[in-house]
Amino acid sequence: MSAAQVLTAAQMRAAEQALFDSGTSVSELMEVAAGGAADWIRRVAAGRNITVLCGPGNNGGDGYVIARLLRAAGNAVNVVAPLDPATDAAKAAAQRWGGPVGRAGVSGEVFVDCLFGSGLARPLVAEHALLLCDLAARHRYRVAVDVPSGVASDSGAALNSGLPAYDLTLALGAWKFTHWRLPGRELMGQMRLVPIGIGAVEGAAQLITRPKIASPAADSHKYRRGLAMVLGGDMLGAATLSALAAMRAGAGYVKLAAHDLHQAPPDLVVDPSPYRVALSDERINAVLIGPGLDRHDGARKGLEEALRSAAAIVLDADALHLVGPWMLNADQPILATPHDGELEALCRAFCVIAEGRINRARSLSTASGMVICAKGPDTIIAAPDGRIAIAPPAPSWLSVAGSGDVLAGIAVSRMATGADPFTAACEAVWLHGEAARRAGPAFTPSQLAERVAEALAACL
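Predicted structure:
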């Protein structure tokens, strides 16, 4: 199984069904999943007493197995269940537990939530929500098995208000979208994956992980490593930030097209030519336009010039408000990096109607032919062929003006080295987050750009 795949609830059910079709019984799979979860819980409990809250379905069945295994390991275990087991596997698990089952809240040290799993699509009834919150409040350490009860598996939405926060969440078999999407992920604490033998799922989303980036070949030179062009606009500070990041993200040559820049860093090549002339260099591999561009007619003409070039394109910031379907060449590799407001503007421009960030990004990518990097605290990357990647949490200090300019600069540099737009977006998002981790708290965007080389070094 790929540890990086992220499944919807429907994909997870199909993956489990494949195991059943191959001869594994539901009870056998429950023993594997619950056994892996019990190992984690036993370690974090460290001999303390444990309360397991079991629901009526197979997630509750996991809870009965966990309770039995922890009891066998020497832990004092209480089981609470507001409803009797309803599935055959859960009934069998409860029988094997064989111990008392309470209906009301008890106090203890470690609380394990096995009330409802990833199939929950509606709010908890009031009685169950109150029991869940009461038990969580009575325990010092809280563990959610698979998905916290009351959190939607696919969207990450909190289906009830006032849900408890957990110290540890144990994903069974595969990551679910809610493990990486807000607001659900904020409730989960540390997260660990418990393998159960699920194979690779066709069409599954992927979690962005540390990329593998090769050092330049021994005979490389600046053009072989890639020439990236950043087109400056009316506000040159933004484009300069992008260029500074691009210089540290792998491209051998970065040029900033700016006709009125008076204090450029000495190692940044500035081309004062008009866009048309600057873009005529056939050695350019990738072009970034948008940071500091503005939205007047001149900016629109500059965007059209960029899109007429033969280079790969990164569209950011103001360019995302100017671009229209008539401007795009179907054969040109294009990456767009919108935040939520820009994503809405692009959807209007390309007549895309969809609910939710993932669906909007996917539908926009299909309609436009662009790779869409919908950036934010839970960044989503969508490709026209249906691929989806989701970013793990990055430092919240990235919520600073200029951070997006740095991300766009990293992306154009990766595309200049030859990466396709989807790969470049995944690499850029990871490098961006890693640079933020290395920059520490309250960094400036230029300090963030300075850390990009360190992030890149971690991938070699």
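Summary: The domain at 227-457 is CATH 3.40.1190.20 (UDP-N-acetylmuramoyl-L-alanine:D-glutamate ligase).
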